[in-house]
Amino acid sequence: MLRPPEPEILQGDALPSTGFDITSTRDKMPAEDVNKAPRTIEEFEEQEDKAAEELGQVGAGLGNRKAPEYTMNYQQAVTAEDVFLQIGPKTPSSASCENLIVRIKMPGDKKENVDLAVTTDSVTVNSSRHSLTLPLPHGINPDQSKASWDTDQETLVLTLKLDREFDFINF
């Protein structure tokens, strides 16, 4: 079963050099960088908090690109029936809000230079001057969300449709 390799098959040093070195750093990783599985709920929560904090540190390690200023506000779809007749289950609290409005100030940028990616739990905005990865406090529906550009204020306005589990109770 075991026999020496055939002479016409190139192996090891007999292979022609490509000019590229193949190396591995798997064994050389420091012990603190290795992701270890949490053993308790507290360790799991600490790891989740660290991951959320790293996501929240916008613009880190991106060279000369800055993290833009942003604001988040909740918005209700209020009609005359809600205001004057007070018919319906809506309350003034954020539990009755349908949208999350995110305003990202991007001075010096134009609409054409902005790259936007929206997922169910985060928003990523990149341009030549700014970079932002923003975790969202609630899940959203990207298909029903909208984005617009305010040219006067050089602001990207995102209207994100909230997708919460018990919305059928509030509306």
From TrEMBL:
A Gene Ontology biological process term: axonemal dynein complex assembly
Positions of the CS domain: 86-171
Annotated region (Disordered), positions in chain: 1-35
Gene Ontology CC: cytoplasm
Database matches in PROSITE patterns: CS
InterPro entries for the chain: CS_dom, DNAAF6, HSP20-like_chaperone, PIH1D1/2/3_CS-like
SUPFAM superfamilies to which the protein is assigned, alphabetical: HSP20-like chaperones
One protein family per Pfam: PIH1_CS
Compositional bias segments (type: Basic and acidic residues): 24-35
Single GO MF annotation: protein-folding chaperone binding
Record-stated family: Belongs to the PIH1 family.
Record's protein name: CS domain-containing protein
